[in-house]
Amino acid sequence: MANKTKHITPWAWVPTLYLTEGLPMFIVTSMSITLFTQLGMENGKIALFSSLIAYPWIIKPLWSPFVDSLFTKRWWVLAMQFPMAVTVLLLALLAPKGYITIALILFTITAFCSATHDIAADGYYMLALDEKQQSHFIGIRSAFYKIANVLCQYVILKVIDYLQSNHVDNAHSWTMGLLICSAILACMAVAHVWTMPKVEQIPEKKKSLAEISREVVQPFAEFFSKPGIGLAILFMLLCRLPESLLLKLRDPFFLGSPETGGMGLTLGNIADLNIVGLVLMILGGLAGGWWAEKAGLKKVIMPMILCIALPCIVYVYFAQYQPTSFWIMSICVGFEQLGYGLGYTACMLYMIRVADGAHKTAIFSICTAFMYLGYVLPGMIAGYIQEATGYLWFFWIVMACCIPSIIITEIVRRKLD
Question: CATH number of the domain at 1-206, out of 3.30.950.30, 3.30.2130.10, 2.60.40.10, 1.20.1250.20?
Answer without folding.
Answer: 1.20.1250.20
